[in-house]
Amino acid sequence: MRRSELLLGGLFAACLSLNPAWAEQPFMPAPQWNALRDASSGAAPYENLRFLTTLHRVPATPAFDQAADFMLKKAQEYGLQDAHAEQFPIDGKTPYGLMRSYLGWEVDSARLWQKAPQANLLADWSTDPIRLADYSHSAEVESALIDVGSGTQAADYAGKDVSGKIVLADGVLSAVQAMAVMKFGAAGIVSDMPNQTTAWSGQDPTLVRWGHLDARVPRGFAFMVSRATAEALRAQVAVGASVLLSAHVKAEVVPGHWTVVTATIPGSDPKAGEIVYSCHLDHERPGANDNGSGCVTILESARLLNRLIGEHQLPQPARTLRFIWGPEVEGTMAFLAKHPDIRHSLRADIHMDMVGGDPFKNKSILHVSETPWSLPTFITDIGAGFAETIRDGATVYTEGGGHAEAAVVEDRGSAPGTRNAFLADVTPYAEGSDHDDYDSSTIAVPSLYLRDWPDVYIHTDHDSLERIDPTKLRRVALLGAASGYTYAALLSAQTPLLLPYFAAHGEQRLARGFEQAQALLRQGAPDALYEAHNLMRQLLRRENAALARFAVFSGGDTALAAPMSAALTAQTRTFNEWLDAEAARSGSSRAAAVPRWRSTLEAARVPHRIGEFGPLTYQNDDVLAARLGAERVEKIQLLSGDSSKLLNVQERGALYAYEIINFVDGKRSVADIRDAVAAEYGPLPIEAVSDYLKACEEAKIISYR
Question: What CA–CA distances, in Å, run from 221 to 110, 336, 593?
Fold first, then answer.
């Protein structure tokens, strides 16, 4: 064993032997951690959340602006600097980076009555706004209800005259709108579209799902009802009863504006860059966990940090801390488009999207999610270290009742929290919120993504304050504050201490990767040995890049990372030797070391990114669909549900697509990009990568030189 291997292995063993409180020590002294922990609150964010849950926070509506004004006043009350709101015009056309703006929505009133065979008020915007689907248009309709099943296929309408009538459907609402309203002339929709699929799906038939119509479609309305209500209506229709409905909607889709609130805690060095805290303020009423919880929790992190820095219990960090509240994804893109100087100054992001759910009520666990492999970083290890400290303290307390201060329980205020364990883990990158923007290659700000998943009440009327745990709000606010402060305060003097910490965690990831490589070998697929070695090669690149980026971030000597990189390289070499030996025993080593496709002209082509910044999909926009049309997009292999040859790709098509475009850097060939995404998500044919890049070329996202 080489000396570097012995050194790193010894450091790793020492890390494991120390007590749980050690986890915060490499990043900040114990007095600083204790000051953050003791000053943190779950009661304050809980009370702020109480107000937010009274607002139906659809973007570009008066209620959203009311929520934004509330967050602005709180930021000012907490003493944050440069706290202000900005408005960004939206008209369905104006671009912000690669993203087209959406539209605003104005609602005056809406009601849905069942008039026969009995009278029943099914929906009223004034008392329960979630029951009117977003971007519904004005209408006055009285008609019999027609059940069209899913309502997303032409066959659902065979033999049924729905022109001018109201249909009952449970398919994806925008697809029902396209078919029922635009193709067959229905006036509107009653929908019981189910919530996201989880192990608990269907167990609560009283849930009402938040629905969205396509704002760019010029007509149609939809009312949302529970599965129980819909089944009762279906039963009446099935026995031949005439179910007569009366719908009134006074609403219009119009140009409007997005509002984004931002504030800062200034750093000591204006040239050192910024650390950004992000969330999304929009969602249905009540929208407690999604994402009122993230909004009030980054606000609590801000209050906590500003107070302790102001009292000199924490030294002023070099980097500025910025906090942003706006519409999901769209607000981020608009803000970054208007402020390229801020975009270029950002160094890391803490993104919170659903962080306060009681795990036993919501069936959730808090995930500390990694960045995609296209953006190697050290920041996840820091966040995970703080999460482990909180988790260990809570576990000791729940099991034995001792060290209550380390448990970070919220027992103050009018709604005390639980004394539960802290259920948190580390997971691979997952898509679906503003971190997708930050992590994309043309922005390249690594995100510490904190999220509850699953959540059985997401996007429903049951996502209420009663399912939020103030203790969890306090713990996540502490986790966010400690992580962001560490990113903001990292200095070159810490480089020698922290590099071994990150390298030790890299060793663990390489070991887990080796197990995955063994599984690839044992599956016996073509080129299995190549795929196994490719996995180890890409993992090593990821870990070495993360070490180098930390050295640059902290301003330390990049040469200090060399011994750690050498140790990781040696470990990978050993794993590859073991893979070769296993392949020889199984006979799979006879396969070509390099597959034939690697030497084709198509594989050698090098794509370059061109045009504006941002990923290719957004909350309400798809760049390829907008530029190429739906028919062309349906032919893209990665995104087609009809391709039986891509079994391990179909369910991850969007993830592959996100990473393929991220790996386009003007240096990697098509084959290199294929190998990178194959290691991250599983082997796939190079033809699928080439086909996707061809569509991106047609859309003028990339070019080949």
Answer: 10, 33, 59
